[in-house]
Amino acid sequence: MARANKSIYSALAANLLIAITKFIAGAFTNSSSMIAEGIHSTVDTSNQLLLLYGLKRSIKPPDKYRPFGYGKELYFWSFIVSIMIFGLGGVVSISQGVEHIRHPETLVNPGWNYAVLAMSFVFEGASLIIAIKEFDKTRKGLSWWKAIIKSKDPSGFLVLFEDGAAVLGLLIVFILMVLSHNINMPFLDGLASVLVGILLIFVSFILARESRSLLMGEGLTPETQKKLKELVESDDDVIEVKSILSTYQSPKEVLLVMILTFEAKLNTENLTQAIDRLRNKIKAEYDVIKFVIIQPQSVNISERDKSEDIYLQ
């Protein structure tokens, strides 16, 4: 979480400064694309604030209303961020661009825009480098795309995507602004705004997909489940793992439910000891698993009445 906070704070500072300068430059030069970039940076600034709020809410301790904690607050606010990128970033930028394509305005004093773009490249580039370095520490040898797909901490890859889209958007605006100025085709400025909007919508779909998956309840990977099965079945009192259910409550908290077949000879006291032993063994092996629910069934219980009491800690 601390790593994510570092990249979020750097992105917040960069976007706040850039948004102000972009709006000033856009007002002085009648540039649609610069206004669109200002909107983009404003949305990004709001997104970082929402992510920080989600991170703060997610670390609240469990209470009687949320016995498993508030970890999924982060997933909820990450999904809201992806919606904001789509609505306030993408749609507004496209609308602004279409309007300036239909009614193009000649750029006035474009030097303002070039100066702001140069400053933006410096700030956004620095923020992107920090986001890349921080996310790289979490990859553990995986490819970048696979690491993003497998990541359970949206605050890391959200900032990475936002900063990447910001730098790419600046390149689009710079190229089309130079063309618009030099070949006297002012509609290209509006086209740049449309392209930035399309880029933001594309990014928002990717982020919404990942955030939605986490919010809906992603579980442990098949590889981890296989290792868990082997670990539990190595116990002398366990015959078979019948089912493994899991869900991430937060990037560092997993709720695990296991249905196990135990030896029929076990009495209530032996069964309780076996469950406690397995629970401790699982938590010792996997720090991320914070809640373990084990539901035992005896090998000689009928299919109609297999389940016994649930043991929870």
From TrEMBL:
* Bilayer topology: Multi-pass membrane protein
Q: Which SUPFAM superfamilies match?
A: Cation efflux protein cytoplasmic domain-like, Cation efflux protein transmembrane domain-like
Q: Quote the subcellular location field of this record.
A: Membrane
Gene Ontology CC, one term: membrane
Q: Native species of this protein?
A: Pedobacter frigidisoli
Name assigned to this protein = Cation transporter
Q: What keywords would UniProt list here?
A: Membrane, Transmembrane, Transmembrane helix, Transport
Q: Which Gene3D superfamilies match?
A: Cation efflux protein transmembrane domain, Cation efflux protein, cytoplasmic domain
Mind listing the GO biological process terms from this record? zinc ion transport
Question: What lineage, starting at the top, does this entry show?
Answer: Bacteria, Pseudomonadati, Bacteroidota, Sphingobacteriia, Sphingobacteriales
Record-linked InterPro entries? Cation_efflux (IPR002524), Cation_efflux_CTD_sf (IPR036837), Cation_efflux_TM (IPR058533), Cation_efflux_TMD_sf (IPR027469), SLC30A9 (IPR040177)
Main subcellular localisation = membrane
- Domain named Cation efflux protein transmembrane is located at 10-216
The family database entries (Pfam families) matched by this protein are listed as: Cation_efflux
Q: Name one GO molecular function term.
A: monoatomic cation transmembrane transporter activity
The transmembrane residues are 7-28, 74-94, 114-135, 156-179, 191-208
